[in-house]
Model the fold of this input.
Amino acid sequence: MAIVDSASGKVRKKYTEKELIEAANYMRGLDLVALNCAGSGHSGGTLSIMDLTAALYLRVANHDPKNPYWEERDRIIWSGGHKAPALYLGLGVSGYYKAEEVVLLRKFDSPFQGHPHWLKLKGVEASTGSLGQGLGIGVGIALAGKLNKKNYKVFVLTGDGEWDEGSMWESAMEACHYRLDNLIVVIDRNYLQIDGSTETVMKLDPLEKRLASFGFEVIKIDGHNMREILDSFDKAKKVKGKPVAILARTIKGKGVSFMENVAGWHGKVPSDSELEQALKDLKLWGKIDIAKLKKKAAAYQRKIDRKITALVPKFSQDYFWNKQKNMQVAMEPTRFGFGKALAKRGDDERVVCLGLDISDSVTISKFYEGCPERKSRFLSMGIAEQSATTVAAGLAKEGKLPVLSTYGVFCSQRNADQMRTTVCYGNFNVLFGGAHGGISVGADGATHQSLEEIAVVGILPNMHLVVPCDSIETEKAVEYLLFHLKGPKYIRFAREATPIVSGKNTPFVFGKANVIRFIGEKANFIDAFETTLASKYKSRGEKVAIFACGPEVPEAMRAAWMLSREAGIDCRVVNIHTIKPLDKEAIVKTAKEVDIIVTAEEHQKGGFGNLIASTILEANLDKKIKFAMIGVADRFGESGAPWELMKAFGLTAEFIAKKVIDLFKH
Ligand SMILES: Cc1ncc(C[n+]2csc(CCOP(=O)(O)OP(=O)(O)O)c2C)c(N)n1
Done:
């Protein structure tokens, strides 16, 4: 069977082998158009998996696009969530919606999130994006199928790099232990992951033998040969008493000459000219109406722009970054400060960096770039955040200065128990670089936007936590943490470029807050403020304080400018770069001196704000303070452009200034 009318049981459409080959090719073309319109996403892996996708959705799996929750349907789990566009095209071409809708990929409020979310799009069976979790979901659904005496099959599509995760092997053991012959795992064996070949990042071979030794029936195929793909699924469906692993040899970037087997195309999308070449390679040039699709994407984006603009509080002029002739600011992602510090100080033989297959993006690769002699101290750990955390503890125990870094979500929560019990309880000298903190991660969406680590990490005994305001402060903090502070330490930095608001001479004392004051408009934003160590700051009688951390500090500074100009409100910004230990003295002193306090964090509201609030409450001051928090309001993130999200989630200076004005009035 294949695409079924669940009411009558009749097959709606059965694709021939030739039609499947054509469909896969067309899906490759649409995939690249959608990625081009999105401006970000994953070309290599989606092209790698497209023949398997077409076969599964159009011929192999039983499902009914008109009845997505049909109980008897086969379940398909997209474990490699970054390959979402292939899944969306599989569903679209099957008839869940028009395949062309996929050009709304990665846009704000779109059902086509950067990583699939089953609550946003019918047909998606599971929300994925954190690698190594889809197989477990599949095992659960397969077990439920057995318990409920259902005949459906469960297909789980995984990458190969994804098998670096220990959780994959745990789920594999369970699948085999329970002899789940209703479970078919497909492995997209393209031999590449982000940092390079799977065999250099973390050796996986002999994968066939490893899977067989766990108890899988392994079927090896050419993942681009439609006949072999169809035969393998037929065979897999007949296996009894054990789960099946289809090991499909594929080519990352398949079908596009300049993308094939190039690791650099993992998370890159084609420009207009590259798209033209790619469609020519696929023999689709002139056959897909690119202009119409781009128009559709642009029209949707205009709608979103209007919607978000309407949300942002209005003032007499546009105060957004670099919108006025004066108050100009340079921008750089805070993550760059991390890479710069490692590059500068990496000669110290004690420093050992642990790579987690995302090394360029988090900038840990700067440690060895141009310094080949350091390569032996760069340990590629594959995609294995939990193990890397315990390995780092072992290295620290023997006197090394281990540094590990990946997306903040995986750096603080995938390994939360390892961090707690091994690193913090053992009080080991490990530096965690939590990259891509906050909503401004952008189009990757909720799974990759780390919004909880101040709460999760900051609560751990023995831990130290720094959330620097810009790339310069990041660099200073990394140097301090690495060489001057013993014990567990976590630094949170961000992906998107944010304003540089400090300089070489700006004070940075670990554990001590800075007070930043607006002193008048200047040509350069940075010159419009003076920064003083909080312990040295003498109140100028201002009645408002904004406590902020990370890239919310520049937003708070911009709010101070706006408040001064728009409402004549004088305020103090307190940069709490060190969250743990907290500068309680500075917080209480400020609370004594002002009447209104607003906290600002690019994080779930309260992770930071509650620390400020409780510090003030515990001081039992004999006065009333008006208090409010700016942060993400107890919800997951979304795909969208970074600054668009900052506005949509109410985190920019306009929201801070409006909050202060409201508190002033009421
Ligand atoms: C838990 C987790 N760690 C890290 C990442 C970041 N990441 C996204 S894709 C990827 C590489 C995946 O490699 P593979 O499974 O081989 O997929 P393919 O190369 O086929 O795209 C990584 C490390 C993630 N999404 N989840």
Observations:
- The domain at 314-321+509-665 is CATH 3.40.50.920 (Rossmann fold).
- Residues 333 and 367 are 17 Å apart (CA to CA).
